[in-house]
Amino acid sequence: MYTTTVHGAHDVRFDDLTPVSPGTGEVRIRPAFNGICGSDIHLIENPETSGYVLRHDADGNLAMPVGHEFSGTVEELGEGVTGVSVGDRVAVFPFAYCGECEACTRGMEECCERPTDLPGGLSSSVTVPQRCVFPLPESVDLHLGALVEPMAVAWHAVRLAEVTPEDAVVIAGAGPIGLGLFFALRAQGVEKVVISEPSTERREVAEALGAQVVDATASGFSAQVRALVGPGRPTVGFDAAGSAPAFSAVLRLLGLRGRMVVVAIHTREFAFNPTMALLARERSILHTYAYSMADFREVIDAMAQGHYPTDGWVEVRPASELLDAVEDLTAGEGSKILLEI
């Protein structure tokens, strides 16, 4: 058995793993699929600037486990576990919240003040608290189960933005989170949605999934968006691109009291004039982070209803191809890669 661990920049190893028997209230899982997240790429390329709270071994050497988007099968139950059985297929909420701080008592587990990181999902065996385990219905396979985490990021953003079917929405970016926003909006009855994307390949994928798509770099971009969502201007914008030009372009499109929702992680500072961008039209900017337990449950329900097709944007590779997959994603090739464990 193995666990995948980062020991330094571009130093990823499949270390030997001794399975941990579950204690009271815990569940041992055999992971099946693990998705590669942009944060995993940052961790592998430069751990020190990845934003992670890094873990070290007993000798003080970096030993950071990889993987937080994963599904698997329950193999062993600890004492006191109910509602989950050996053999159940599950998605895993990838951090253990304390359940006692202000955030947790308000249902904002994503903002827990005392979270505990779980073992990496790119492993042969993982032991986690039962509360982090979400059984999958029959119609949701383990491939989809590994997508619950990133799709919950998008679902959470749509929920916090209080989008309604009457809104007109523009999304910057047709990567996994941008597509997740599109799926979440469609599942919640929002029909006026346009995705802005500069990549021809990603535009074609989004169009094949039923989205209205425009080229973010084309002349007449603003007019195209307004023609598709009109009459009037978009009321909600989502930044799933993480670039200053994309953020600014969508913000400028919004109408009166438009809401700009930042879902992407911006790694560089950039400037904009809030008076010109926000004040005159009473626009607002909202930033969202991760997801709550409720978001996980709602995404799984939406998956069971068929709102999350995977054709054309999800690729499966063996776990041994992790570094090749990271290289391809860094080069802009593909969209979402699941590693089979």
TrEMBL record:
Gene Ontology BP term (one)? butanediol biosynthetic process
Q: Name all Enoyl reductase (ER) domain ranges.
A: 8-339
Q: Which cofactor does it need?
A: Zn(2+)
Show the PROSITE patterns listed in the entry: ADH_ZINC (PS00059)
From the Swiss-Prot or TrEMBL record, give the protein name.
Alcohol dehydrogenase
Alphabetically list the UniProt keywords.
Answer: Metal-binding, Oxidoreductase, Zinc
Which cellular component appears as one GO term in the record?
A: cytoplasm
Q: Which family does it belong to?
A: Belongs to the zinc-containing alcohol dehydrogenase family.
Q: Which InterPro entries does the record cross-reference, listed alphabetically?
A: ADH-like_C, ADH-like_N, ADH_Zn_CS, ER, GroES-like_sf, NAD(P)-bd_dom_sf
Q: Which species is this UniProt entry from?
A: Corynebacterium variabile
